[in-house]
Prior knowledge:
Layout: H1 2-16, H2 22-37, H3 39-42, H4 46-62, H5 64-82, H6 86-100, H7 105-110, H8 120-125, H9 130-138, H10 142-148, H11 158-174, H12 176-185, H13 189-195, H14 203-220, H15 224-232, H16 235-245, H17 253-266, H18 270-278, H19 285-288, H20 303-317, H21 323-339, H22 345-356, H23 359-368, H24 374-388, H25 392-400, E1 402-403, E2 406-410, H26 415-423, E3 435-439, E4 443-444, H27 445-454, H28 463-477, H29 481-489, H30 502-518, H31 532-546, H32 550-557, E5 559-561, E6 567-569, E7 590-591, H33 592-618, H34 630-648, H35 652-658, H36 662-673, H37 680-695, H38 707-717, H39 720-730, H40 734-737, H41 743-746, H42 748-770, H43 772-784, H44 796-813, H45 821-824, H46 831-845, H47 856-860, H48 864-984, H49 989-1050, H50 1057-1111, H51 1115-1226, H52 1228-1313, H53 1317-1361, H54 1368-1377
Antiparallel strand pairs: 1-4, 2-3, 5-6, 5-7
Helix pairs in contact: 1-4, 2-4, 2-5, 4-5, 4-6, 5-6, 5-9, 5-10, 6-9, 6-11, 11-12, 11-14, 14-17, 14-52, 16-17, 17-21, 17-52, 21-24, 21-52, 23-24, 24-28, 24-42, 27-28, 27-30, 28-31, 28-42, 29-30, 29-32, 30-31, 31-34, 33-34, 33-36, 33-44, 34-37, 36-37, 37-39, 48-50, 48-51, 49-50, 49-51, ...
Amino acid sequence: xxxxxxxxxxxxxxxxxxxxxxQSAISTVQTLADRLAKADENGIDIEDRRAAVLALKxxxxxxxxxxxxxxxxxxxxxxxxxxxxxxxxxxxxxxxxTLCEVQSADSAASNPNHNQQTPKRKxxxxxxxxxxLHTDVFLEQPGPLHCLLPLLAPDRAFYTRFASLQLLGSLLxxxxxxxxxxxxxxxxxxxxxxxxLAEGAGSSAEIVRNEALLLLPHLVxxxxxxxxxxxxxxxxxxxxxxxxxxxxxxGGVIVQDALEGLEALLRYNVSNQNYFRETLSIPMLAPxxxxxxxxxxxxxxxxxxxxEYARQLEAFxxxxxxxxxxxxxxxxLDIAALLIGGQGDGRRANQGALLQCGMTKCLLDLxxxxxxxxxxxxxxxxxxxxxxxxxxxxxxxxxxLLVQPVTLVSAPIPDxxxxxxxxxxxxxxxxxxxxxxxxxEPKPAVVCLVDTAIGTSGAKGxxxxxxxxxxxxxxxxxxxxxxxxxxxxxxxPDADDKHDGAAASAAPAGKVLLxxxxxxxxxxxxxxxxxxxxxxxAAMLFSYLLRSSxxxxxxxxxxxxxxxxxxxxxxxADQDAAADDDDDDDDAPSSxxxxxxxxxxxxxxxxxxxxxxxxxxxxxxxVSSASYSAADWTRIMIGYLVLLSVWLxxxxxxxxxxxxxxxxxxxxxxxxxQSSGVDPLIQGLAAFxxxxxxxxxxxxxxxAVTRETMHPILHSxxxxxxxxxxxxxxxxDVRFREVTPxxxxxxxxxxxxxxxxxxxxxxxxxxxAAAAAAAAAAAAAKASDPSAxxxxxxxxxxxxxxxxEAQDKDxxxxxxGHLSKRRRAGLWFDWSFVExxxxxxxxxxxxxxxxxxxxxxxxxxxxxxxxxxxRQAEALRDTVAKQAREIEVLEKRIEELSAQHAKEIEALRSxxxxxxxxxxxxxxxxxxxxxxxxxxxxxxxAALADIQTRHDAVAAQLQxxxxxxxxxxxxxxxxxSEMARISAGKPSQKEFAALQKAHDELKKKQDVEAxxxxxxxxxxxxxxxxxxxxxxxxxAALQEKVAALEASTADRAPAQAQGEGELQKKLxxxxxxxxxxxxxxxxxxxxxxxxSNGEELQAKLxxxxxxxxxxxxxxxxxxxxxxxxxxxxxxxxxxxALEKKISDLEASHTAAEGQTKQLEELSQKxxxxxTQLAALDKxxxxxxxxxxxxxxxxxxxxKANDLEKxxxxxxxxxxxxxxxxxxVQTLGAVEKQKKxxxAKVKQLEKSTKDNKQLEAKAxxxxxxxxxKKxxxAKVKxxxxxxxxKKxxxxxxxQVDKLTKEKTELEAKLKSLEGASKSExxxxxxxxxxxxDEIAKExxxxxxxxxxxxxxxxxxxxxxxxxxxxxxEDEDEDDDDDE
Length: 1378
């Protein structure tokens, strides 16, 4: 067999060589797969099939994808066919494990055959990992998995069972839901797995059991059907038996795996939880924690039994706790929390079962009287809180239980260690002192719980442990009025009171709580053990006692404090102050509310001082302060404000006590009224407290401040809008917004972090102690060579911490310190107050808008008709107020206008009088101007008639000149014809020259004479034209002035109508004269146009004469020319006469211009008169306007009268409203009953909400537990593999020993071969059989050792991925193995 296996290895090594090639490997795989697939057809025996499977198993390591693609179906077929053969089944399963394994990124990178240069894109293109693809092929049909489950039977070989569990685990990790589906339909599938848990002693059986424990949580996770099947197969009993056999919570990772399987069966499965209770498995939980079972009926049979129980209880309280034990104990507590995570009958039944089996007492002893780590104690208190919720028997147990708290005692450091730490202070930190514990006298459990929450118990623990105590106390008093009243009454017990039972145990608890409430924060702020959380937690606990209970609030109001600090009971706390009130005495005791208000006021002052100091310190100033920080003072004030808000809500008598001193209201208003420098949470909570006090201040008793006095103060100091903004901003604050139902459970992380830091410090101390010599040598070297010392590099954690501190410093400098991370951390609110706030903040924010005579409840119950009437009345009031303001403005305006108009009227009257005098004085001048105007018109008419006659004469002369010109033109034509005739006779040259010379001389003379006459005529014509144009312009201007005068006279008063008519007639006559002058001017223009026509004729004559001078050559023609010149002279004379006439016309025109000037002067005087008349008209208009304004004033008076009538109507409406309000007040009794019913409904709703909260918390705890179990399972697997490695090493030693024996046997065999066959035949045969068996066993052990080594490496790699530490010894073992 060994020889055949070596041959297979040689073939595989040949294929794996670089020159082997992939094609040969694929062909080999295909060949082997065909051999397996066609084994039945070809009749291949089992040996050859096993060899083929072994060959595929070897190839699957380096050619995983190829073997899975080509040979996996054949392997599955072979598995279903050859599962009965152990060797073949084992080889098939191991090959499937290799194919279905999905490597992580780190394990793939650590593979030496992994190609480091493979790009990501290529890996992405390759698709999903081959292990997932092979798993899908394996699970495609249920047959292979159904064939795998029978291999887990106890009668199969160890390696087959172990490999089957490993393959099943791989399939579950890759495709859990499909595996679960196949297991559900498999016959006896769950039973086969559970059979692996019921194994006897022996290493192989334990290995199978441990592997089954690891497999079980994955198999049942999220599948209720499988959970039920496994539970009914007896899984609870078997898992609990494993825990008991391995040593309960001290059993290491094996117990952790078993507990995780138990938790997986119970999670989200109510049926299994009920079955767990019915199978009486709940009583097994407390013994798992080594808690001794109590006697039946709490009665011991003998003294010895009682002493034995005490001894076992003390052993339970002082037991040692390592990390694994704490982990196992937390899983036990998670299982108990799962059982009480519901809200129905099953929850109550499980609460009773846990109480009967002693689990409640176990949890309380573990949390309050043991040396367990703080994180475990905190978790125990949270589970105890779930047990207390709505369970009076469990609450009664807490009320009557006595425990012996364990306090921490630190041992002093020995002198030798102190000297050593002083010598090597630079090399190592001082050693951590050893701690010890002492047990105090028995105390009530309630007192210990309150001490733990407040922080005065001396027990080891931080904020997470205290938060768990707060949660347990809240659940204890939530619906237990007996416990509430017992604690409150125990704060100030009467002298004759005799407490028994719950009251006796609660009395000291009340004293402890009251002491923390009354303690002044400023007096203990500078002490060494100052704790700001003490005041916040005390306020929270006291608010739990008072919430939604007027009975508890009444009992608390009965507590008073004398000036000397003694506590007394105030019997007159709720009596009517009006009957007999002598509280003004300074020595009178102060009520508890007033003491809380006093502490609040002092804390407010200390907060302002702390903010100033922190801001100065952030800006670089040196400020020394031993008091609390600003964040601590803010936290203290929040506690007091929360307590007062809960106390005063729906309690008028408590509000009367709160407002009994006027300084109280001012102290609460001050932070709300400030615009900056105050934390928004303080402002919002203070505003909420004021709203609560105003809303529920309905008691008629005597108080310093009443609802009627509060209303104007709140509106003047704060305002309704600012009040709502202050309350609304609280919900946006991160410290309020981050509060969730599990806020107290989340603080367990604080304890876990502290424990981790302590463990790390311990490990570091041990490492420094182990390397003391090396540290001393290094210290000596640094001392001899100072330059060799170098500062350690800054750690990332230190850098992040420095950055956070810098950001917090910047926020504090800018006045935003409340936003810094340091101030946001920690506990600020609990979920119960957040719910209370969200339910009532909207109502309280609107309460100050309600009239003091009413209330928000009464306002909400008002019918819609009355609301509508109120809105209408408010609208009418606004309208009346607006109109009243408008009337006032109008009255002032009327007064101003009246005074102004009176002045203007007086001025206008004076101007009117002056105008009238002026008109009367200018009347004779106007008449004289009119007579002169008539004379001018007559003179102008005469001048125009003379000019017309002259113009007619000039026109006649022009006609004569035109006739003469026509005759001269005819003569010129005759001369031209004669010249042509003469030129035809060809005269001599001399004659022609003489004629030409004479013609020239005549022409010159004619030009001179004609030029002079024509130039003068042209000048005269131009001057006449300009004069006519000028006169036309003057006439147009005169016409405009006349038109203006006409327009002005048309607007005059009727008294001057007659004079104006006469003046109008004169103006019309002047206009007619003007029109006549214009017509004459037009005639003159026509005459000038005729003169210009004569000039054109003259030009033509000159041209004819020039032609005549060129052609004429005879003397006859000269004579005709001389006659023509004579005619031209006569024409010139006629022109001169015409010019004289024109000059005469101009003279007459100048005379007319003088007359026009006189007319213009008259028009100016007329215009002055018109301006005076216009002024008079303006005065009349202003008078009319004043009359109109007087009318508008009369109309305004009428409107005012109407408004007064409307006001009277509004008075009637107000009376009706008062009557309606009286009717509403009659409904007060009904509203009170309604409030009581609503309070009861709220209590029911709160209880329902608490149940929901517990369910949510349980779910979150289950999720965390699941993650923790997974990590613990991996750690357990690692430890198990370590044990297996050691066992295999021992087996390897045995193998070496057997090898030596083999060599000795071989030597004996050789020596016996020479002997006779008859003597040594039998001995030789026995030796050969022994040799074969030893070789086979060695081969199996080597294969198993190799597989376990590979698995151990993979598990270590996974642990390193998770960030867990791996011991150096194990790394060295790995190196040795390699």
